[in-house]
Amino acid sequence: MTRPDMNALWMPFTANRHFKRAPRLLVSADGMYYTDAEGRPVLDGAAGLWCVNAGHNRKPIVSAIQQQAARLDYAPPFQMGHPLAFEAATRLIDMAPTGLTQAFFVNSGSEAVETALKIALAYHRVRGDAGRVRLIGRERGYHGVNFGGLAVGGMAGNRKYFPQTLPMVDHLRHPLDIEKNAFSRGIPAHGGELADELEQRILTLHDPSTIAAVIVEPMQGSTGVILPPEGYLQRLRKICDKYGILLIFDEVITGFGRLGTDWGSNKFGVLPDILCCAKGLTSGTVPMGAVLVKPEIYQAFMDGTPEHVIEFPHGYTYSCHPLACAAAIATLDLYRDEGLFERAASLASPFEEAAHRLRSAPWVKDVRNLGLVAGIELETRNGAPGQRGLAAFLKCWEMGLMVRVTGDTLAVSPPLIISEDEIDQLFSTIAGALAAIE
Ligand SMILES: Cc1ncc(COP(=O)(O)O)c(C=O)c1O
User: Fold this and answer.
1) Second label for 287, Cα 20 to 30 Å away, from 68, 77, 129, 418?
2) Cα(362) to centroid of ligand 1, in Å?
3) What pTM value is reported for the model?
């Protein structure tokens, strides 16, 4: 394949000059594999970008999108509707954690987060509790790249150019404690008490009656697979309940089978008031996200305004997009018909075994795993954070495997259709790559 002219594209979250010197171009995909521009198969160890949970080029999803494009290409979502939007919402709510009853559609994880934060702030206001204006996030949290998500997020590198995001935000500490929990299998034993920091430090500092919501990812994915310690999320839930604070779970990664259950909420047995999802909702095929809420939140908006008035002045041109709705319905059908979440649960144990075999590989400082996700944290090269991680990522690519890298942590999150042989192939390729780098 001739190389395209790459100058015009400013690539997102990419070292543009480095990439354009030695591009990694994907030209097609099927099942567990990409094909690159040289015609090489590349095992997808990252489900694209944590999203292609059903695997690539799945016929029922592809044909649903094709047929929908020919039937109804676009319909405005403001003061208008189309049947598929209602069907997609019903299907999503039917499989949502019990107790979440309405879905608001958006087009990405970032938009889901902005929407959730706005719902939380507006909810308190429509109930006459307008003093609740503070939002609490967590260090090393990733909630997308828009201003709200950036403010509650805790990735220092993403925030450095934007010191003036949202005011009235504070952060909990993250629960990663390698000293105590290194090489934990599944949920780490130590650190559940870190949730008490919400009550002991944040609430005393700010006055609980000013806090609108706490937002956390049940598992912090993008900053290197940080799992909630035993009891941590339960404790957060209790403290939020005690002080009338909304708990938002950002399940953009943990939704749709990633942890070996349908939702992270169900994995940990904690129901949030508001849940953000995206990615796996359409298995990455068409951009789509959603915010799910408890009935009392939806009802507060309905009760708070006269019937002819728009209750929540928020939405996007492409909310409820017909192609996205068609893709979502076909994807949810496929998850159900092929039992893919159950499959993820049954593969979790061989996946864990294979991941932890990396303990003896060079540079490996920690392995963390749950369901079909693993983080492999490497020793940082002297004075050069991220360099060894990048070298390992590039070596994996060279050896026919695509993973994610964040700093010095490799993240593995394959499509849920992966076989046991492919799991072995995936981790032995990583072992080979680690042996080959400096
Ligand atoms: C937990 C979480 N929230 C939000 C986002 C942002 O999603 P998007 O890139 O679709 O805007 C991501 C993306 O990885 C995520 O992992």
Assistant:
1) 418
2) 31
3) 0.98
Among protein residues, the one with the nearest Cα to ligand 1's atom 14 is 222
The whole-number pLDDT of residue 156 equals 87
Low-confidence ranges of the chain (pLDDT < 50): none
> Mean of the per-residue pLDDT values for the chain?
97
Q: Is 109 in the pocket of ligand 1 (CB under 6 A)?
A: yes
Measured in angstroms, how far is the CA atom of residue 435 from the centroid of ligand 1? 32
Ligand 1: residue of 253, 258, 276 to mutate (most ligand atoms within 8 A of CB) is 253
The per-residue pLDDT for 165 is 82
Kindly report the number of other CB atoms within 10 A of residue 30's CB atom. 12
Angle between helical axes of 340-356 and 322-337 (0-180°, round to 10): 70
Count CB atoms within 10 A of the CB of residue 57.
14
Helix axes 387-398, 420-436, angle to 10 degrees: 120
* Ligand 1 pocket mutation, candidates 52, 142, 217, 291, criterion most atoms within 8 A of CB: 142
253 Cβ below 6 A of ligand 1: yes
What confidence score (pLDDT) does residue 77 get?
Answer: 98
Distance, in Å, from the CA atom of 172 to the CA atom of 43, rounded to the nearest integer, reads 37
